[in-house]
Design brief:
Layout lengths: L1 H7 L4 H20 L10 H21 L10 H21 L1 H17 L5 E4 L4 E4 H16 L2 H15 L10 H41 L5 H45 L1
Antiparallel strand pairs: 1-2
């Protein structure tokens, strides 16, 4: 009965199974991909875009697949789980760029005393400080301006060459490598936030000395406005350097992405 259904639509069983596996990897990647994977993009849009990408790439990928003779049997279940895992891992790795800049922004928010102000962050579908939101918006604009979406999409489709749909095995060295690389990316977040954090720390030391000299000053209330003003002024001064740092983080993240993709 199943073979008759495939013949009616002029698709073989292997082609239908390959299409399903391809759709699973692409859908899982898009669900965790930065910007597009957030709640600001509707579920229908994601589904339609995933189907469109699958249909457009099916012919090329199927014709170049090694031994695409697939069947709807027990082995297809394991292949489907493997494709979902690969898509999620690649999408999460591409999202590391936004994790780094969001962390840098949150550290700046805490230093400036803005951590209590929570805004909705569409990238992570949760709350974020004012400076964290600013960093994420700036990073999103830079991500699109530098063609980060093109870069990661190119790398994603290259993953079908190094990790074919019909290949069952996974290399665990990729997981070890990404864990080692995350430490370096977290250090980049500290470097991005360091100028403002260090400046506000020195400013707070000065305010503490002033409070000792002039106890009548309400240093707690005064420091809140002074820290915010100083943080914004320093941010304006270092903005060109911060854009350069964001570009370096994007380069490092893409390096981790391609290294992981080739090691799967």
């Amino acid at each position: 009965m199943a073979n008759q259904a495939f013949e009616i639509y002029k698709f073989s069983e292997a082609e239908m199974a390959f299409f399903l596996l391809l759709l699973v990897r692409i859908s899982c990647f898009l669900a965790t991909w930065p910007i597009f994977g957030g709640e600001q993009v509707g579920a229908r849009t994601k589904i339609l875009f995933g189907l469109t990408m699958t249909i457009c790439s099916f012919g090329v990928l199927y014709s170049s697949a090694v031994n695409p003779g697939l069947r709807f049997d027990e082995a297809l279940i394991f292949l489907t789980l493997k494709e979902a895992l690969v898509g999620v891992v690649l999408g999460f790795t591409a999202r590391l760029f936004f994790f780094v800049i969001s962390m840098a922004g949150e550290m700046v928010s805490v230093s400036m005393g803005l951590s209590s102000e929570q805004l909705f962050n569409p990238i992570f579908s949760g709350g974020a400080g004012a400076m964290g939101q600013f960093y994420v918006i700036l990073g999103s604009l830079l991500f699109l301006a530098l063609g980060g979406h093109h870069l990661f999409l190119k790398g994603f489709f290259e993953s079908f060459d190094v990790m074919p749909v019909t290949d069952v095995g996974l290399n665990t060295l990729g997981a070890t490598q990404i864990m080692q690389s995350i430490g370096g990316l977290l250090a980049s977040a500290v470097k991005m936030a360091a100028p403002i954090m260090a400046s506000i720390f020195v400013l707070n030391v000065g305010l503490a000395i002033t409070n000792r000299a002039i106890p009548q000053i309400n240093i707690l209330i005064t420091s809140l406005s002074v820290n915010i003003l100083a943080g914004l002024l320093i941010l304006i001064l270092i903005l060109p350097l911060m854009v350069t740092s964001l570009g370096e983080v994007l380069r490092d993240t893409s390096g981790v992405f391609f290294s992981l993709m080739r090691s799967l």
